[in-house]
## 1
Amino acid sequence: DIVMTQSPDSLAVSLGERATISCKSNQSVLYSSNNQNYLGWYQQKPGQPPKLLIYWASTRKSGVPDRFSGSGSGTDFALTISSLQAEDVALYYCQQYYTTPWTFGQGTKVEIK
Amino acid sequence: QVQLHESGPGLVKPSETLSLTCSVSGGSVTGYYWSWVRQPPGKGLEWIGYIYYSGVTNYNPSLKGRVTISVDTSKNQFSLKLRSVSAADTAVYYCARGVTYCSTTSCFFEVWGQGSLVTVSS
């Protein structure tokens, strides 16, 4: 299985400041034939299902605010919230879909400082 | 837009079979990959398996052959059965739809149900 490791487990950021979450895989999720990274990011608020934010490592889903951005390639990825808003308080998960079994990171909790 | 709704018993006894159904409204099961994902209380997400509308399935080996996912296109729903459950199977179970360009090995999830808490206890 591809193991996804996120860091930190939690972070507290002031409103309007930048939040960055790291996600590392133990093997590359870059598919050489199409040069795509098979990596997505989800946001989960308490009592709600996950919500897709980013796919192909850096493509923002329609309707997702542009303060959310994804970056990285191969085995190292990041989700950045450029200016944290109160409504961004949530758990964030990365997911590899390079191969089955599809696996998620353990989650990163983002809070307001 | 498409909505998913999980239904089934909230309490299952150890060693018995957990059964859940995901009803799809506002869209068709045809043409998509449908997955089950679970989340133990306070923990992360685990993909259980998928079924394509044609009946093709793929399961997470971590569940050691205890899983069966089936689809009923006439009822526009799909189902999960997890046999020989233990307390470790206590979780919120989500059904989810893959994006339109999923493949047998590659898929992420754009539509999720609200989840169904299943507790395994005697």
## 2
Amino acid sequence: EVQLVESGGGLVQPGGSLRLSCAASGFTLNSYVMSWVRQAPGKGLEWVANIKQDGSEKYYVDSVKGRFTISRDNAKNTLYLQMNSLRAEDTAVYYCARDLGGSYCYWGQGILVTVSS
Amino acid sequence: QSVLTQPPSASETPGQRVTISCSGSSSNIGSYTVKWYQQLPGTAPKLLIYNSNQRPSGVPDRFSGSKSGTSASLAISGLQSEDEADYYCAAWDDSLNGYVFGTGTEVTVV
């Protein structure tokens, strides 16, 4: 059974950092593009970043470029999102998702990140 | 602000058909296939349609997708109470070099 489990969320002050992890099981991580998608409270879905199977290509939404870094450790079957210089507008539930041809067939349960003083 | 525009809400009575539109541009819907996601309250999104009109295994055939030019639509026929959810379209965007979601449509079964 395919499972994606996010961890690492929580409350952080503006300007602070957090690293999210997404543990994958039930499939081989290195076969898939992986993505992070977020949803601010009461708002719609927003794609954040994705990373190719071998980590050679990464893409980001403009609002997080230079602050967030997506990475993966295929040996550990884990996807990461390093978030620096966090802002109030980064407050959201963050989902990791498995990408197949641009379709997200599998999603994690989501993890809440709250940026507030 | 999303580059894919959807109506904020849609409603219909049980058993009827509801259609949700998704308007984009040549850099997204005009060039790439469209996906549709259903999000029930408090849960992660679920893929309903891929490649603009294909259903993953397990998705009822009451859900159908279509695309024409720079617009797409999702139709739900035989509307049921469990279809009450938020629905999002999505596509890759060449200009943004990223994936974009629609603004979302809340479907209510009245």
